């Protein structure tokens, strides 16, 4: 499986859980020590991820485009994406998203999530 295939698999799981507004499921795709930086102060671990997504408005959806991937080691993949977060009551917000995926005994999981706004 290519690095892009692995990243797409994880990103599709993340997107489906975000679009379903299922914060606990979103958090399940992160490692126990994951660093998470959305558009609010950062957190470490799945609990912070679940809290972040629980606070997102109902009806928010995510759609992404993979821009780049890099295999850093056998068990680490870096991904760079753009993500469009759509809302029912305001304009879509486009962000850059850097993901660091780690291969765990269970699956590839997100160990670092870093969002930045486009200018």
Automatic annotation (TrEMBL):
Signal peptide: none annotated. Coiled coil: none annotated. Residues 8-110 form the DUF4440 domain. InterPro entries: DUF4440, NTF2-like_dom_sf, Steroid_delta5-4_isomerase. Gene3D superfamilies: 3.10.450.50. This is Nuclear transport factor 2 family protein. It comes from Kribbella lupini.
């Amino acid at each position: 499986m290519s690095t892009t295939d692995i990243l797409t698999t994880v990103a599709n799981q993340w997107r489906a859980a975000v679009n379903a507004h299922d914060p606990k499921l979103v958090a399940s795709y992160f490692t126990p020590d994951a660093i998470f930086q959305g558009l609010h102060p950062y957190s470490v671990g799945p609990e912070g991820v679940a809290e972040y997504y629980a606070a997102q408005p109902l009806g928010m959806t995510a759609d992404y485009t993979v821009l780049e991937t890099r295999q850093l080691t056998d068990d680490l993949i870096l991904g760079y994406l753009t993500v469009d977060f759509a809302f029912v009551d305001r304009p879509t917000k486009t962000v850059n998203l850097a993901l660091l995926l780690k291969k765990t005994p269970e699956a590839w999981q997100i160990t670092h999530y870093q969002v930045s706004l486009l200018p």
